[in-house]
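Researcher: Go.
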Amino acid sequence: MSDLTTLTRKPDRGTDERAALDELLDSVPVGVLCTVLDGMPWSVPLLLARDGDRVLLHGSTGAGALRHLADGAPLTMTVFALDGLVVAHTAFDSSANYRSAVLRGSAEVLRGEVAERALEALTDRLLPGRTEEVRASTGREVAATVVLALPITEGAWLFKGRAGGSGEPEEGSADVWTGVVPLRTVAGPLEPDPWNGSGAPVPPSVRRVQQAYPGLG
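Model: Structure:
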């Protein structure tokens, strides 16, 4: 069996510092969940939230793959942030600045009040303070939701990333432009639904999202 705990290509880009993993998980709201279902690979992007030493996930009880995971099937969760395009003196030497992580393990099913608190934590991760602005989830809504927690355990995750500019040409200078094109996610203009009450103010939770993803001015 191959070693799943060690980077085999460009190991210098990896780190075992938990702070780097936490920062990535806290800044990227979507990951790709993967497993094997009926002998075939299966993957789906899902919203996520780190809650201490675990990652919270959720989906519909009608999703067969999530029931498969609820039964203890092994899984991986991949997260990725593209921080910039690295423009080098050749196409071959061009690259990207990024942060990525793969977490492995089996998910725990959360039930009852624990599941309710996890759903609130997930909501407030995406829209900080939103649970204080809306009604609580009903028992029926919670019952229709599979809530999973993936533990973050030592030896069960890999982090890899790159930062900085391109490598210096062997000639010592380039006759074409080289450098980095930084990339980031920004919040656009709000698009209120037509059924909002007249004069309904923009809530603090939405303002916080705008502050978290500021535009370019």
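Model: Strands lie at 30-37, 40-47, 49-50, 54-60, 74-87, 95-106, 108-110, 145-151, 157-162, 179-182.
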